[in-house]
Design goal:
By secondary structure, the protein is an alpha/beta fold. It is 39% helix and 17% strand. The chain is built from 21 helices and 23 strands. The strands form four sheets. Strands 4, 13, 14, 15, 16, 17, 20, 21, 22 and 23 form a ten-stranded mixed β-sheet that branches. Strands 5-6-7-8-9-10-11-12 form an eight-stranded parallel beta barrel, surrounded by six helices. A three-stranded antiparallel β-sheet has the order 1-2-3. A hairpin with a 5-residue loop joins β22 and β23. It starts with 9 loop residues before the first helix and ends in a 6-residue tail after the last helix. 44% of the residues are buried. The structure holds pyridoxal-5'-phosphate. Residues 92, 94-95, 117, 119, 141, 241, 244-245, 279-282, 329-332, 530 line the site of pyridoxal-5'-phosphate.
Length: 623
Amino acid sequence: MKSFETLYALDRWGGELLGVNAAGDVTLSAPVGGAPTSLPKVIDALSERGIAAPLLLRVHHFLDAALLNLHSAFQSAFDEVGYTGNYRGVFPIKVNQQAEVISHLMQTGQPLHYGLEAGSKPELLIALSQPRSPESLLICNGSKDESYIRLATLSRKLGQNTVIVIESLAEFDIIHKVSTELGVRPLLGVRVKLTERVTGKWQESSGDRSTFGLGAHEMVTLINRLKDAGYLDCLVLQHSHLGSQVPNIIDIRRAAAEACRFYVELTALGAPLTHLDLGGGLGVDYTGERSAEENSVNYSVEEYCTNVVEAIRYAMDEAELRHPTIVTESGRYVAAHSSIFVFNVLGATLYDSPNRPEENREDSHLVSDLMAVESYIDGPRFQEALNDALYYRDELRALFRRGQIGLDELARAEQGFLYLASKFKSAARGQQISGDVQAGLSAFVDHYYGNFSLFQSLPDVWAIDQLHPIVPLQRLNEEPQRQAIFSDITCDSDGKIDRFILADGAADALPVHDLKDDEPYHVGVFFVGAYQETLGDLHNLFGDANVVTISLDGKGGFNIEHETEADSIAEVMAYVEYDPRDCLDAFRKTVERALAAGQITPSERRIMISAYKEALAGHTYFD
Ligand SMILES: *Cc1c(COP(=O)(O)O)cnc(C)c1O
């Protein structure tokens, strides 16, 4: 059976996690040896239970797979390179703060001594509430006030390996004061500002102009202060962070080498360092292209580990230092693959029509010129025909604006153009198409309306042009006949997805199937587990979608592990400080006045009040 998964490059970016079965369904791969689970079947089964799209689907097995891959890649690199230190990973909570995600990671990570990274006080409180292996680390980054530092310091009394990473000279003064008061020796780290800059979206986090960390001069000052205060023996960890999604392995290697230079020098100054923390930056290959582009990376997790471990081993051997415990705060890599956002298509505006308009003798000759284009669409004059059609249509629109033709005639012209569009589309099918022609054809791209809010569910697509793999979840054994972009249901023209990953690179439209009246059409946006869930906002008051966590049973089925129902309208109204009961009361009074004035009947009043109440309790998305 023919499969169209390669069209969407699913075979490339889907890796070992996703596939397509003979029925044309996208499938979720089970752990080794198990049968895959059809994703549309999961969506149908959830929908029967009343949990409908839009929904965010988390797959436990995908989260586990990334975490275990990362650890085994470090272990293999250690073996290969002869590294004698350990690896201790920590999960940066900001990447996905959801309780269910963090607690699952802590459970799977227990035997690996997987720890947590907090970048704020709320995140510290979360970290302190999680059961962790006693050998795991709790890394405290970010700006810290006295109460943040007090809590972190106190947790040392519980035997926790809480490391307070000093990000500025002023922070040490607070640490000094608090630990003296409490009589607790803290574990300290220091964030160094590397001079190497990296490419990619987050390059501002790197280099000497970055906001975070201490430069060489401040570092020397800090060491002296630590020495004078009698705290130098507490400095056990050196931290640096290049920014997220570093696309080029060479940057990672250079940064690791520079971090080692600081480590060696700080050790020479008397700091008893044992941990080298390289922060985040391990990227996700969203496009599957394996290139040093914004939405891709030119390395695998194995290469990342080998490069980092080699660079560190080399530097430490040269300086005759013990191999430090390597720490990374890889969040995106661990979390991104585990979530899939699924929305249903509500309808479409198609930019073509099978109906040729009736000719009218009175019409401008431009209308018949336009229609004459049909005769040379097929064949070598395709591009000329395309240019002509666009030209005549624009001229006719100009005539309308100048009052030279009426609405009726414009309507025939637009209809004629849509008729030609259908001819262009069928002629273009299966042809090699040049960039210019492609740009012309983009005038005919269809609009599919998705039941979602880009601002709530895919904020990075809106804010930083993040590309996620997007694929229809069903009918992949059927050739898609249309090219579409997706509009969401907010009233904002920014609320659209118009860049996609296809086999030949990024494209402005996604191949999709004709919609059927009696069948839902679901679209999946993949690898949305990192950063998307709490950055989203309530634009137009569209709230959180349903969230469901599943595990795969290895027999083609699944189990629901956790479920969070979408926000109700009453809930989102309360977020912006309306009291839904007051609103209902106010509405009731308006309706009662209309009844008193004889504008409505008592039974109309009943219908209105119950419609309002029902809507309050319902969801913000289309049912
Ligand atoms: C955001 C952040 C991370 C996570 O980076 P990823 O690229 O997602 O792994 C790690 N450490 C610090 C200090 C961060 O600010």
